């Protein structure tokens, strides 16, 4: 089976087809296509980057398709991908930027845990026009290699040997954060599924820890109440005991990890204020 791009009434479509050789009326074997799955219009899935169809075909062939709905049609044995790059001794590209090629390995990990496919799939079925996966990837790589504010991280785009984003609006980074927050549970499930399948993650031993972080604001968040003074939504930034002993509103964070120290799930919630006892 392979992915094919064809046109109908001037519109490009994607489909999964299988080619078989059958005998015609004269007894001569000829190739005949059989449509296995109609994927949909190319415009729904194209991430705007060059050679999308070629990249899609390659990803399906290696068993890790960009479009998640194709996963069930892939074989059980994936063809390994070998990445090669060379650096010329004395080249100016080798100096002044220690992270020039390091994002390549991180991007491969994101592919293995299913992040790229998930973002591409949701982008295809939504009205998102910007490169939501590119922004997310830049935020993740920046957090690992050179932590900074969200806007400063986006400005690091040109620091990489091959920029991650092309022709982008920096303000879309905040739209990306909204997208991640809205789909957080789906993202975590996809990561956990791939870690179990590909990294043999075991749930026999799970570790849990909590911490908190403060916000430089004077007052905590108010709770949202209904007409009967019942709490509809609890404010997340609340006064409480801060690990850094700052008298500022804090947010509590809980983290589950497996026995290899790899996160399973994370959640933020209001810090419960406990009045100190002086007895």
Strands, helices and their partners?
Blueprint: E1 2-8, E2 11-23, E3 29-41, H1 52-61, H2 103-112, H3 115-124, H4 132-145, H5 150-155, H6 172-182, H7 184-199, E4 206-214, E5 224-225, E6 231-233, E7 250-258, E8 263-270
Antiparallel strand pairs: 1-2, 2-3, 4-7, 5-6, 7-8
Task: Characterize the structure shown.
This protein is an alpha+beta fold. Among the domains are: 84-201, no CATH class; 206-270, no CATH class. The chain has helices spanning 52-61, 103-112, 115-124, 132-145, 150-155, 172-182, 184-199, and strands at 2-8, 11-23, 29-41, 206-214, 224-225, 231-233, 250-258, 263-270. The strands form three sheets. A three-stranded antiparallel beta sheet has the order 1-2-3. It has a three-stranded antiparallel beta sheet with strand order 4-7-8, with no helix packed on it. Strand 1 and strand 2 (11-23) form a beta hairpin. The longest helix is centred in the C-terminal third of the chain and has 16 residues, at 184-199.
Q: Keyphrases for this structure?
A:
28% helix; alpha+beta; 279 residues; 7 helices
- Average pLDDT level: 83
Query: How many distinct helices?
Result: 7
Q: What is the share of helical residues?
A: 25-40%
What structural class results from the helix and strand content? Answer: alpha+beta
The largest pleated sheet is described as: 3 strands, antiparallel
The percent range for strand residues is 15-25%
What radius of gyration results from the CA coordinates? 24 Å
- What is the number of beta strands? 8
Query: What string gives the helices and strands in order?
Result: EEEHHHHHHHEEEEE
Distance between the termini: 75 Å
Report low-confidence residues grouped into runs of 5 or more. none
Shape from CA axes? elongated
Order of strands, widest sheet: 1-2-3
């Amino acid at each position: 089976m392979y992915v094919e791009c064809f046109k109908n009434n001037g519109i490009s479509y994607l489909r999964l087809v299988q080619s078989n050789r059958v005998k015609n009326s004269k007894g001569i074997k000829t190739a005949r296509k059989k449509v296995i799955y109609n994927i949909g219009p190319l415009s729904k899935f194209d991430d705007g980057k060059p050679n999308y169809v070629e990249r899609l075909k390659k990803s399906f062939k290696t068993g890790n398709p960009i479009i998640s709905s194709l996963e069930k049609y892939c074989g059980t044995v994936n063809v390994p991908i070998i990445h090669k790059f060379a650096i010329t001794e004395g080249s100016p590209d080798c100096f002044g930027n220690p992270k020039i090629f390091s994002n390549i390995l991180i991007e491969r990990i994101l592919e293995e845990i299913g992040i790229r496919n998930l973002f591409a799939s949701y982008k295809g079925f939504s009205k998102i026009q910007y490169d939501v996966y590119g922004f997310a990837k830049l935020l993740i790589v920046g957090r690992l290699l050179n932590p900074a504010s969200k806007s400063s991280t986006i400005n690091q785009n040109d620091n990489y040997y091959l920029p991650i984003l092309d022709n982008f609006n920096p303000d879309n980074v905040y739209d990306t954060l909204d997208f991640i927050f809205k789909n957080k549970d789906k993202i975590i499930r996809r990561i956990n599924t791939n870690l179990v399948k590909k990294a043999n993650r075991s749930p026999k031993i799970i570790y849990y820890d909590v911490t908190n972080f403060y916000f430089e604001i004077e007052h905590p968040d108010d709770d949202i109440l209904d007409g009967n003074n019942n709490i509809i939504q609890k404010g997340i930034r609340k006064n409480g005991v801060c690990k850094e002993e700052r008298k500022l509103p804090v947010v509590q964070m809980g983290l589950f990890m497996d026995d290899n120290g790899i996160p399973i799930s994370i959640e933020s919630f209001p810090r419960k204020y406990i009045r100190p006892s002086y007895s």
